[in-house]
Every structure is written in structure tokens, then in C-alpha cells.
Amino acid sequence: MLKIIWKNNSAASLLEALNMKTLTWQLIIPLTIISFVFVTKWWYALPADAPDTMYTGFPLIYSGAAWHTSMAYQIFVAEFLIDILTYFLTWFIVIYCINRFWFTIKLPRLVTTIVWSFSVLIMGLYTLTASFSDNVYYFKKSYPMIIKETGYHFFWQHTQRPD
Question: What's the per-residue H, E or C state across the chain?
Fold first, then answer.
């Protein structure tokens, strides 16, 4: 007969859970915001019945130029949420593995303040951009498209439209 023996180390597991909760608020959420903005993928696509368009998003397309005016975006909310969740889970797994198997992460208050300040600045700028009245919001992308080219880029790089 198979017996399962559970470790009765509830105090240690409780401390580990509290540490991960603290790390989630202090490190994982800000790193999610920063990496979501700074590391992404561009997509050059031909949507059905529309001009060729540059899109952004990893792993799914969540944003592209709007077709009715040059300074607006079309944003796909479901894909955006999936992308944010992907970045969050990636950082959570990385921080959890480091904290659990290599060493315990203890953040100084200065690091937490700097990372959160940078994240709040990014969220403010993106909220300002998202609040423009010309932007178009869809729950999900509802039209087919042919992907012609893709690539990765960082925030400070300007990606030219392929020929």
C-alpha cells in the first residue's frame, strides 16, 4: 500500500508564502510593467479589407495603429490581458525559483522605491496615451490577417515598416 507522507512544516511554508506575497507587490508587479513596455514583439500584417499595419504585442497582438487617424491606436483588451498575464507569470516563476532554490530575496527599500517609481511613471504615460478619445477599443481582434514579418524590439528602438 502506498503511503503519502506530508511534511508538517507549516511555519516554514507560511513564511515562504508571505515572502512571495511581499515579493509579488515589491518586485514582480513592477517588473511585469517594465518588461511589458520595454521588451515586445512587432508584427507586420495585412488585415482583411484594410491597409498594411504594424502591430505590437507578445505573445499575442494587443495593439496596432488605427485606420481612421494617424495618431490613434486600436487596442484589443482580451489579448492585452493575456499578454500581461504571460509577463506576470514569467516573472513570478523566475522570482519564485530564485527565492526557493538559490537564495532568499530581500529587497532594500531604495530598490523597491526606484522600481515602483519607474513603474508608476510608465503606467501614467500609458494611461495618458490610452485616454485619447480617438483610440478604438475592441474586446478581441475580430478580423483575419496575414502576418508578413515579425521581430522583437526594445522600447527605444524605432521599427521601420518592412518593404
Answer: CCCCCCCCCHHHHHHHHHHHHHHHHHHHHHHHHHHHHHEEEEEEEEECCCCCEEEECCCCCCEEECCCCCCCEEEEHHHHHHHHHHHHHHHHHHHHHHHHHHCCCCCCHHHHHHHHHHHHHHHHHHHHHHCCCCCEEECCCCCCEEEEEEEEEECCCCCCCCC
pLDDT in tens, 45-67: 888 887 888 899 999 999 988 88
Note the pTM of the prediction, 2 decimals.
0.81
Q: Kindly report, residue by residue over 66-100, the tens digit of the pLDDT.
A: 888 778 889 999 999 999 999 999 999 998 888 87
Domain boundaries along the sequence of the chain: 17-152
